[in-house]
Design brief:
The protein is α/β, with parallel strands linked by helices and 261 residues long. Helices cover 45% and strands 19% of the residues.
């Protein structure tokens, strides 16, 4: 049933979504033309994909603790790291889009909910090497593997926090003067997604970007995305089906864009 609904949502999105043509907002047109549709190869992509390649070949077994949707709370499962790398990591095309979005935003700080094995974290960090990256993961053993990747890259500006997002996120948000880039890829439940969004709102500014992953993952996530779009502080959203971008630019007429990706 899930696959049928998801496929229907995808086809509906493809039918209604636009390319750069037909977008009249100068900011969103520039975003689509220069960032979303920049498919040129970059050396950093090759370097980080080598990390993915090593993870795909890693046959070690770890115990996965999933605190989010789609599982029972604390449902521990034995999995090969290679299996997690194959099924849970963002595919290169999407991870590289996140890299471009982060580079375009030029943040001083980045918060990522859902470290997984750390590949997306590396993309975000390399996109904004001067930024402090706060990455949060619910599973201790998955986080340990990610930490090994960060140590191997000799990166000291990634702060990895392990625990339930409900317990860890707010204090990190509260420790920052403002939020520049927040990527929410974990706990795909309506109430949690909206709660994290509300926690962010007092700290957003003209150039902030919030990215929500899997906005069509469930009916609950679709409802959360609809409420986020309708919030009065939000001025522009870009729905790429796989992720949703949320902006707070003053002077931007409130509008929701569906863009093919």
């Amino acid at each position: 049933m899930f696959n049928i609904r998801f496929a229907a949502d995808y086809l509906r999105h493809r039918f209604r979504a636009k390319t750069r043509h037909g977008i009249h907002s100068p900011f969103v047109y520039k975003l689509v033309d220069e960032v979303i549709y920049d498919f040129a190869p970059k050396k950093v992509y090759t370097d980080i994909e080598q990390v993915r390649k090593h993870l795909l070949a890693d046959d070690r077994t770890i115990t996965v603790t999933d605190l989010g949707a789609g599982s029972h709370v604390n449902n521990n499962k034995q999995k090969h790291i290679s299996q997690i790398a194959k099924n849970a990591l963002k595919p290169p095309r999407l991870a590289q889009l996140l890299y471009r979005l982060a580079a375009f935003t030029n943040p001083q700080s980045i918060i990522e909910l859902g470290t997984c094995l750390g590949v997306t974290t590396l993309y975000l960090q390399q996109a904004a090497p001067k930024a402090k990256v706060y990455t949060l993961e619910g599973c201790p053993q998955t986080a340990a593997v990610a930490g090994q990747q960060f140590a191997g890259q000799e990166l000291n500006d990634i702060a990895l926090t392990v625990g339930n997002f409900d317990d860890t996120l707010y204090s990190i948000i509260n420790s920052l003067p403002k939020l520049d880039l927040v990527y929410v890829d974990g706990n795909h439940q309506k109430e949690a997604t909206l709660r994290y969004f509300e926690w962010c709102l007092p700290y957003v500014h003209e150039d902030s970007l919030l990215i929500f992953d899997d906005i069509y993952w469930s009916e609950g996530m679709k409802e959360a995305w609809a409420q986020i779009k309708a919030h009065p502080q939000v001025t522009a959203t870009v729905d790429l089906f796989w992720i949703g971008l949320v902006y707070f630019k003053k002077g931007q007429a409130k509008e929701d864009f569906l863009v093919k990706f």
